[in-house]
């Protein structure tokens, strides 16, 4: 079974982002970039399937700027076999990303596609669902446990009422939640081996996909700073402040 995993280059989760003075976007100069944490979980799950002899090959795909090859190399160091890099310089909406991934899936013919449930930069949570719709494949979203049973896939996901287990026919699309696994750290020998693993370079035209920017960002701004709290001496004073200052009653 061949498994395709997607990864995205984002600002490191531990970095406090800075907004440009003109509000046109986030300042990325001298900012640490890394693999989206949900994508790391997806790579880890695919590598575990390979180690369990369930998957025969793990392919990593990324759609982003030229620097995204760094995140592909990280995934290769974790245990993936080869990479596909679709170079684009502008941020694309999930709809275009999904169409490009569909072309990659039709080209590679994997039995399973694993994605992070969302990226921490835009929090769209749309690409996996759109890809499943374009492919007309069954999907299991927010997966906290994945198990391959013969020609079917059992996906456990957290819902409001508890846990829900789905049984999907392969091929299928799965998006990962944080509780699925804990990604491994790439060892130095594997990092060196990853440098020799192939990364195929493609453009959107190679995938018969045209860039479309239907969404336009008008402005980006930081949330207002939280104000300090006040202590009150009595319930009557609390009610007075809620009525006169907060104006909530």
From TrEMBL:
GO terms for molecular function: electron transfer activity. Residues 23-211 form the Electron transfer flavoprotein alpha/beta-subunit N-terminal domain. Keywords: Electron transport, Mitochondrion, Transport. It holds the Pfam family ETF. Gene3D superfamilies: HUPs. The keyword Repressor does not apply. GO terms for biological process: amino acid catabolic process; fatty acid beta-oxidation using acyl-CoA dehydrogenase. GO terms for cellular component: mitochondrial matrix. SUPFAM superfamilies: Adenine nucleotide alpha hydrolases-like. Belongs to the ETF beta-subunit/FixA family. Heterodimer of an alpha and a beta subunit. The electron transfer flavoprotein serves as a specific electron acceptor for several dehydrogenases, including five acyl-CoA dehydrogenases, glutaryl-CoA and sarcosine dehydrogenase. It transfers the electrons to the main mitochondrial respiratory chain via ETF-ubiquinone oxidoreductase (ETF dehydrogenase). This is Electron transfer flavoprotein subunit beta.
